[in-house]
Amino acid sequence: MKRLLIAGLALALLVPACALAQSALNGTWVVQLGSAKGFGKPVVIHLKDGMYECNCVPPVKVKADGQDHAATGHPGFDTVAVKVLDDHSIQEIEKKDGKTVSSLTVTAAADGKTATYEFTDNSGTSPVTGKAVVERVAKAPAGSNAVAGSWKFGHWESMSDNGRTFTYKVDGKQVSYSDPTGYSYSAEIGGKAAPYTGGGVSGMTVSVKMDGKDGIKETFMHDGKVTRTTTTTISADGKTLKSVDHNVQAGRTMTMLADKQ
Hints:
Blueprint: H1 10-21, E1 27-40, E2 43-48, E3 51-54, E4 60-63, E5 69-70, E6 79-86, E7 89-96, E8 99-108, E9 114-121, E10 128-138, E11 149-159, E12 165-171, E13 174-178, E14 184-188, E15 194-195, E16 204-211, E17 215-222, E18 225-234, E19 240-247, E20 252-260
Antiparallel strand pairs: 1-12, 1-20, 2-3, 2-11, 3-4, 5-6, 6-7, 7-8, 8-9, 9-10, 10-11, 12-13, 13-14, 15-16, 16-17, 17-18, 18-19, 19-20
């Protein structure tokens, strides 16, 4: 909230603060998996002649030999191992300081039009498991593994409850977020960026400002650089939350709905 330096308007400042304390954002929410939609740049994978490459941010390019290889510039992991399981599936394991933080199996369908991502995320205080389906938008060069090519998000098939549950608490001008895996923050609306903790990643911050009556916009940063923004709005009846999450670095956006518990 913009701070006004006119003492006579102090009372006016109190009105939105009091209203915010009763914000419809307060409560625990659970994502509707079927509501998720993805937009923006596709995920591009190259896998040919024993080399794996993706347009991750920063890009990853390693031998697909199942061994740990250095991956620089990624706050959540420092090594990645890619193993070719067969001509249409691979396994990818990410580690940080020798500990597995994420494991992923990608399997392309027989017709090559879709692929399934099955993952376990161990970065938080409890593992999150899930399965998603992606859709092909461009083929890979001849002779590539079937998982190679360009892909866009299709839909979620499943996700463990701890990966789709989160809680907001608004108290005056202070908004707090937490989830079952240990990610959390507490920030002043319109104030300075506050620490965003969880996942064993240091240097993460978030700043928050109002977006409409009960909505907020969160700007996430790592080491001073914006990584993503999330705009959250609440339905008129207060029962449904809509989130628009934009990955600034990757150029991708995900929208979803969540139900108040």
